[in-house]
Automatic annotation (TrEMBL):
Gene3D superfamilies: Dihydropteroate synthase-like. Coiled coil: none annotated. It comes from Halorubrum ejinorense. This is Dihydropteroate synthase. Transmembrane segments: none annotated. One of its GO terms (biological process) is tetrahydrofolate biosynthetic process. Residues 17-262 form the Pterin-binding domain.
Amino acid sequence: MRNVDAAGLGIGDDHPPRIMGVLNVSEESPYDPSVYDDPGEAAAYVDEELIGEGADIVDVGLESANKDLDVLSAEQELDRLDTAVETLESTSGDAVWSIETRYHEVADEAISRGFDMVNDICGFADSEMPRVCREHDVAVSKMASPPDLERPGAIEDVDEIYEALSMNGLTDKTILDPAFGGWSVEKTHEDDRETFHRLREFRGYGRPLLVSINRKSFLRTIAGRSTEAALPVSLAATSMAVERGAHVIRTHDVAETRDAALVGAEFARDRYRSGGGADGVAVEELDVTSVAEARRHLDRLGAAGVTDDGRSVASSAVVHTFELTGLDDPAVGALRAATVGGDATGAAFALGDPAATETAPSAADGGTDAGAPEDRRGLLIGTPAAVDSVREAVSGASKPLDAALDGIDLHVS
């Protein structure tokens, strides 16, 4: 995983989660607590409510993300930049300042006047944006979007979101944003939930991730909350996002989000890493929990997706454990034969012993006799590829087992 230096602020796996607080100098913004058009009042808000509460980055928006409003031109954004710059110059707290824009002209001017990084909400739809960021040597957050300056975030399908992040390339200091919400009329809550569910896949680029999920409707509708009452669901999702690999959390609720992010980081997977030294081999255990996530990393490396004998490499990346209950004698025999000996598939099967468990039901207490088919259970352990090999090997031995393994195959494939 590449780390990014944003004006001295480290972002990536080697650093704690970073909090991006939001300031809007647009009166159209839908979230009033962060909207200011007076530089003095805006500076006080930044010092007290953002930096003072733990924000590492201050992201300044020049226009609203409301998809029902007209998109501002570069000239109109530049007209509002003075307020943002005056605010920056009037604050006393220490933070990295980010300008949210889609135009390279605005980014260039903002950086020249003191901003430290860029939050490109159109994901390099302006093809000159990467050049500007490289020339200034600044970090840039790239939000997944179609090649259209008027439709930021307007992509629904997770695979298309992933592909959009490669549009017009990446700089050495690019941070990726999979675009929750956005300005797409077609994007549904289920689309956003699917993206969140598959968030680890976006680590496949090997770049830091930014998520903007604060009080988003795809979260608050789960609990039936209004925007004003949606803080708890945002915090729950924040911990989950960090645990799944997010490095920057963009939020209006800085103090609470910071705490939730630290909890997520504390309970994230402990993965092995070794630098290897000048002549050694470096090692990084990747955060992979699904076949799809493994495929993303294979694509990043340009590695072959299949072995010489035609097996999927990605399907060997994750081990699943399934408890099978109600096994009859043919099923047990077939599973043992498929997982033991010279023709073993790479999966393992262990049959349980009801007599060895204190809670095993018995005929005396209204249960069944120990060892009856409905009481016979065992664990089947293996990668998706190994479990699929077991399914093929035992096919026809037991109809109930065939049905169970077919269901597993649909789940893991």
